[in-house]
Write a structure and sequence with these properties.
membrane, cell membrane, about 270 residues, transmembrane helix, TSUP/Inactive_protease-like, mainly alpha, transmembrane, about 0% strand
Amino acid sequence: MWKEASMHGPAPSTILWPPTNPANVLTLCFLFFLVALLYSAAGFGGGSSYLAILALWGIDFQLMKSTALLCNIAVVTGGVYHFYKQGHLPLKKAWQLSLISVPMAFIGSYLPLKQEQFFLLLGIALTLAAVCMCYRLFFERNKDTEEVKHSNGIVYGIIGGGIGLLSGMTGIGGGIYLAPVLKLGKYDTSKNIAGLSSFFILVNSISGIFGQVAKKQIVFNWEVVFPLLLAVVIGGQIGARLSAKVLKPKWVAAATAILILYAGVRMLLK
């Protein structure tokens, strides 16, 4: 059986992976593979779903954050490369969005959070992420031609900074919040927004990892992390290649919104 971390009591210092139960290993690896495949096809890392799954399985909250951020990095690194290669990553806009968010993600990750505070914040963040996914599913419409407006880079940079802070505090890369904002503002085309989201998630996740290292609270159990990393790398590479041909972010929302909403509401109720 899994050794579970209570959402109410003190967190155990270490959660061990049970090698005697390969069914648990295979189940989590399959879920992470599926999440990485779906999210990377739309330019996301999957951090919200990784956290939802780990929370439902009772993993220690510090290990959750570290694992989700590392999986984000593993997935979107390939996505950033493929979007850039296909001409869907405008670097000037990418740096405008990330200039404030990177230090804010570091600060967010460095801030001390108790377990109860973390799960409350994560519950709110996951619920909001589910709402964003539902927006993409029900209200976005694919068009042959997309209008792109001239946008104020400073305003979007500040918005990115706020998302970066939330990213660092929770372990969510932030792309799931950034993409709807950019879409509503007609900041760029859908494929370019996917590329920008990938870049945003990558730099914020790296910054979040450094924030945890700086406060000496980073937790890695490689018996947990390594098989999950392998699963998301494979899934992410497949998804990133699919995204270069067919981009259907609404299916990502359809496949994951229920899971994230359930996990978010469950945390808030507890």
